[in-house]
Structures are given as structure tokens and as C-alpha cells.
Design brief:
Layout lengths: L2 E2 L3 H12 L21 E4 L5 E8 L7 H18 L5 E9 L2 E8 L2 H8 L3 E5 H6 L8 E3 L8 E2 L1 H5 L5 E6 L8 E2 L1 E4 L4 E4 L3 E3 L4 E4 L5 E6 L1
Parallel strand pairs: 1-10, 2-11
Antiparallel strand pairs: 2-3, 3-5, 4-5, 6-9, 7-8, 7-12, 9-15, 11-14, 12-15, 13-14
Helix pairs in contact: 1-2
Length: 217
């Protein structure tokens, strides 16, 4: 099974089911798919909420969707017990056509990052700078609406009201990592190393073990 590059805790629970023999894992090729329902993704919504979808291959005849659903619900309850302000909801946990599809919603990027134990930010560039994220990077233009062919920290700080997604790509541990799709509510203007635009509002994270960034309107 390929390892997805985000949504760590949910994917960890899926892997646990594999190790216990409840599931039989296969391999899912995600790169190049134009259907977001068939790829693992993180969606940044205009109200600040985050939607996370995990799609992994499994042999349906051996799969216990109820067992996975129970494990995720327990993990959510445990996390809320640690952080009473966190808002995390399991919207869907289904197994069909040899794959499992899990959809979760988080009230904000902090709830997503906290639950999954990942470094993740989604908000304005100004807020990212104030939060202490390192913006000493160079991003390349991927849109005709971009004013410059590339931007570095000084230009980014001048775009304070634009939005940025920052994430720490998961270490692959020697295994091949599947891309994680990032969906934005505005058009993507610039992307960093290891990030490939696949549409005006979507990009795939293909790097591993480093920080990935994209800027959108």
C-alpha cells in the first residue's frame, strides 16, 4: 500500500486494521486522477474549515468498515477529551469497489493539525508570518493572474492578505508516497518545490519530508 502524505492519524488507523488482519491492502494509483473523490485530499474552505478525504485500496471481501469507523470515532473522542475546543466530525466511512473512503471535517486548520499530529497552516500570509512560519522560500507562478514569475519572502510579505497553505510532508520511511491533493476555494497563484498544480484551484503534493507551500487568492 502506498502511503498518503497527509491526514496522518486517520491513515494510521487504516494501517492498523491491515496489521491486525482485518483488511487486505492493495495499491492505489492516485497521481493524475481528475476525480477528487478518487484521491486523498485536503480541502481548504472559505469559512476556514478543513475537509479531509482519505482514499486507500482494500479488498472489500475482507474489510470491516464498521471496525474502522469505530476506531476513528474513538480517536475523535480521545482528541476532544484533550482539547475541548476542537471540532472534528466524521462525515463518511465507506468501503466499496475495493477501496475505503473516509471523509472528515475540521472547524479550522488547528483542529486538523492537532488531530492528525501534523504541521499544517491555512490562512493569510500575514497570519502565517505572525505565527512564526518560515517564509524564506521561493515560489513559482502557475497562474496568468500572478503578478510575478516567482516570489520570495519580501514579495510574500507584501501579499499579506492573500492566502497560503503550509504543510509538512510526511516522511516516506522508504515506501513510495502517494500524492496528497490540496483543494483551495480560490485560484492558486504560486507553488513551492514538490507541489504541482493540477487545476486552477487544486495542486498535488509530491515532495516528501519537507515543507510544501502554495499561495492562492
Amino acid at each position: 500500500m502506498k502511503k498518503s502524505m497527509g491526514a496522518g492519524k486517520t491513515l494510521f488507523l487504516i494501517v492498523c486494521l491491515c496489521m491486525m488482519g482485518i483488511t487486505a491492502c492493495g495499491e492505489r494509483t492516485q497521481e493524475g486522477s481528475g476525480d477528487d473523490s478518487e484521491v486523498s485530499s485536503i480541502s481548504v474552505n472559505k469559512d476556514g474549515s478543513i475537509s479531509s478525504r482519505i482514499v486507500e485500496d482494500f479488498s472489500e471481501s475482507y474489510y470491516d468498515a464498521g471496525g474502522l469507523k469505530s476506531m476513528i470515532e474513538t480517536a475523535i473522542a480521545d482528541y476532544k477529551g484533550q482539547d475541548s475546543t476542537a471540532q472534528v466530525t466524521l462525515k463518511k466511512c465507506e468501503a466499496s469497489d475495493g477501496s475505503v473512503n473516509v471523509l472528515m471535517e475540521f472547524a479550522d486548520y488547528k483542529s486538523y493539525a492537532g488531530f492528525n499530529g501534523e504541521e499544517f497552516f491555512a490562512g493569510t500570509i500575514q497570519a502565517a508570518n505572525q505565527a512564526g512560519f518560515d517564509l524564506n522560500v521561493t515560489l513559482q507562478a502557475v497562474s496568468d493572474k500572478a503578478d510575478l514569475s516567482s516570489v520570495s519572502k519580501p514579495e510574500l510579505l507584501g501579499m499579506g492578505d492573500s492566502h497560503i497553505v503550509i504543510f509538512k510532508a510526511a516522511e516516506s520511511d522508504g515506501a513510495e508516497a502517494s500524492p496528497m491533493r490540496i483543494n483551495c476555494y480560490g485560484e492558486i497563484l504560486y507553488v513551492g518545490e514538490g507541489v504541482t498544480a493540477v487545476g486552477k484551484k487544486s495542486a498535488d503534493v509530491t515532495g516528501s519530508g519537507g515543507y510544501g507551500m502554495l499561495v492562492f487568492q
